């Protein structure tokens, strides 16, 4: 979740960088200052997410609820926001105007964030007002990245702009059309407020509530903005963790950034400041994990010969989670020598064992540089390190089991609530658990030691049967990571041959 150049306001599923760019734009977004641009943290976050093994993500654009969509005549922007006022729409005759006088053409002109001039980005030709035509204007514009035919607007050929009449207007004439800009677009030019700023635009928490409709995600990532103040990062991470913990189905695990502490002169001072920051992040939940330090990645649109940017690590770590899940399963800790962070040029602070000894017991997972593996994640604890849910894979395995079993037994709804149903539930869930046991998901040498499934008259007494409730108890023996390897050495001396 974060600010973007453009894009829909509801959570949108993407399966790669191309999907993101097509829907949400690039590395910059428009501001209130004409010609100026602000960095889009989410675009950098998507780079490292997919580089590290991420495959699918939902993007929630952070924009105020009062955002409006710019329009000109029958055409409006593809999504709300101030960005739309940088779009111009030029109406012209169809290229086959001699044979099709009722057809028309639309040129879309866009001035990208920070660009000095505008350019023609789309050309839609031989548009028709006939719903039976394959070039019916509303249907064709639904494929545009920038504009749509305004809903509810009658479909008729718009008046041709001056200077572009005829079959072959030149590009210079198209770019020179006056009064072609979309107007009345608003929103998205400012950072979304974390707290209620008095304008009734809500908070980060109310924005996150839009994710309630997403039921097939497992991780929540709210990247810290580039250059964001430490105190603001604390607020951002707190809101994200609180949302994950408060989800009714408890089906999300939050990966949070710790503040950067860029002014710290040494790793020791940065570690001390991180400990202080942790006290400002609430709640301390086992549905979340925090990572430190920040990481340096390449900046494709930066200035200079080899530009880079420093960003929070949570997006790269989320991609790593996905990679480990695919290779080993959610029960494997996303840490260790196989947990290399790809696309990361440098970790900002070089933490040592002494620093980790200070952070690890508090639930802050360190990023370390190790000779055998490079830039690695070297911690796997939740933000409740003193609880039985102290380890990330234990909590995530429980989330996985709860979600999978819940979705897998929907067939039981409206079935007679008696022993035949209970027996079938035990069989179905038991088979699923045994399959996971054979994949190495649980501790224990036998299935009896590894898990149990109970569904009978004891778990579902008569009062629950009357209420239409069937209860299933599932227990499992979790695998816990070996955080420390202890080697004892002794030397035998003065032995006689």
From TrEMBL:
Record domain Tail sheath protein subtilisin-like: where: 209-383
Family annotation (InterPro entries): Phage_sheath_subtilisin, Tail_sheath_C, Tail_sheath_structural
Domain Tail sheath protein C-terminal: 387-489
Family in the record: Belongs to the myoviridae tail sheath protein family.
Protein's name according to its UniProt entry: Tail protein
Native species: Sorangium cellulosum So0157-2
């Amino acid at each position: 979740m974060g600010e973007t150049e453009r894009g829909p306001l509801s959570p949108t599923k993407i399966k790669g960088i191309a999907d993101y760019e097509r829907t949400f734009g690039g590395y910059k977004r428009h501001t209130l200052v004409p010609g100026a641009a602000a960095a889009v943290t989410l675009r950098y976050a998507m780079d490292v997410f997919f580089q590290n093994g991420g495959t699918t993500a939902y993007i929630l654009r952070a924009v105020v609820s009062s955002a409006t969509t710019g329009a000109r005549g029958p055409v409006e922007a593809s999504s709300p926001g101030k960005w739309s006022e940088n779009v111009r729409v030029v109406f012209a005759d169809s290229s086959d105007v001699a044979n099709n006088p009722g057809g028309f053409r639309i040129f879309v002109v866009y001035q990208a964030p920070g660009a000095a001039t505008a350019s023609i980005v789309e050309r839609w030709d031989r548009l028709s007002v006939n719903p039976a035509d394959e070039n019916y204007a509303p249907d064709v514009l639904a494929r545009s990245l920038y504009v749509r035919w305004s809903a509810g607007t009658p479909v008729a050929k718009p008046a041709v702009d001056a200077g572009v009449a005829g079959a072959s207007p030149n590009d210079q004439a198209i770019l020179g059309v006056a009064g072609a800009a979309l107007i009345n677009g608003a929103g998205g030019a400012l950072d979304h407020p974390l707290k209620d700023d008095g304008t009734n635009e809500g908070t980060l928490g109310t924005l996150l509530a839009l994710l309630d409709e997403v039921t097939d995600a497992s991780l929540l990532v709210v990247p810290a903005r580039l250059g964001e103040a430490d105190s603001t990062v604390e607020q951002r991470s707190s809101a994200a963790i609180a949302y994950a913990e408060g989800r009714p189905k408890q089906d999300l695990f939050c990966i949070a950034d710790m503040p950067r502490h860029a002014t710290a002169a040494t790793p020791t001072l940065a570690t001390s400041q991180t400990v202080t920051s942790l006290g400002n992040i609430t709640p301390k939940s086992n549905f979340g994990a925090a990572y430190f330090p920040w990481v340096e990645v390449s900046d494709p649109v930066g200035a200079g010969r080899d530009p880079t940017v420093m960003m929070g690590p949570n997006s790269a770590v989320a991609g790593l989670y996905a990679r480990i899940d695919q290779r080993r399963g959610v029960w494997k800790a996303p840490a260790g020598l196989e947990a290399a962070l790809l696309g990361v040029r440098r970790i900002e602070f070089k933490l040592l064992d002494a620093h980790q000894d200070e952070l690890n017991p508090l639930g802050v997972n360190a990023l370390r540089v190790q000779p055998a593996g490079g830039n690695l994640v070297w911690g796997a604890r939740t933000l409740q390190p003193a609880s039985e849910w102290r380890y990330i894979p234990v909590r995530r395995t429980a989330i996985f089991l709860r979600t999978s079993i819940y979705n897998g037994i929907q067939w039981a709804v409206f079935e007679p609530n008696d022993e035949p149903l209970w027996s079938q539930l035990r069989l179905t869930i038991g088979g699923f658990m045994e399959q996971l046991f054979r994949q190495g998901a649980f501790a224990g040498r036998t299935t009896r030691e590894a898990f149990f499934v109970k569904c009978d008259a004891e778990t579902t007494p008569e009062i629950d049967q009357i209420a239409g409730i069937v209860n299933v108890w599932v227990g499992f023996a979790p695998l816990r990571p070996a955080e420390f390897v202890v080697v004892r050495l002794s030397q035998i001396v003065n032995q006689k041959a």
